[in-house]
Specification:
By secondary structure, this protein is an alpha+beta fold. The chain has helices at 17-28, 38-46, 102-110, 130-134; strands at 7-11, 51-61, 64-77, 82-93, 120-122. The protein has four helices and five strands, in the order βααβββαβα.
């Protein structure tokens, strides 16, 4: 990362919501495999029981939000088992700040979630159902981080 950049990694505050909405819009604007509605997903997740405020984290540079990560609660079920975990619902970095280590710093900050005895799963797309995902998990993939 560019050492001249003084990035602050902190919990998202309600006053950040508008800036995060615009950040996510810009971050996914040129992504071919995006439905360009990721910002709407984040808004819906904030209003759900899956939202954990401490796991909605922003990267701030000179008062501007340049990165965001959101982890949410999920329940993974199959015919034999059910357990709670976390999913990376969203990670965004403003295109002007790509390749500066901001995404890595956001993930590192969010990684403290393993102390909550959860496994982080990246669900990939909004449309992927949890039931479909859980049917493909092996018992090793269900192991909780230590």
């Amino acid at each position: 990362m560019n050492e001249a950049m003084d990035i602050i990694i902190r919990q998202e505050a309600p006053g950040d919501y508008k800036a995060v909405f615009h950040l996510i819009t810009e971050a996914f604007e040129r992504e071919a495999l995006s439905d360009h509605k990721e910002q709407l997903l984040v808004e819906r997740l904030r209003e759900s029981n899956a939202f954990i405020p401490e796991l909605s984290i922003v990267a701030e540079l000179d008062g501007e939000i340049v990165g965001h990560i959101l982890l949410t609660r999920i329940k993974i079920e199959n015919a034999n088992d059910e357990f709670e975990s976390l999913a990376i619902a969203q990670i965004s970095v403003h295109p002007h700040y790509h390749r500066n280590g901001i995404g890595g710093r956001l993930i590192k900050r969010a990684s403290w979630a393993r102390n909550l005895k959860h496994t982080i799963r990246n669900l990939g797309t909004v449309r992927q159902s949890l039931l479909e995902l859980s049917s493909h998990l092996t018992s090793q993939q269900k192991t909780v981080w230590h």
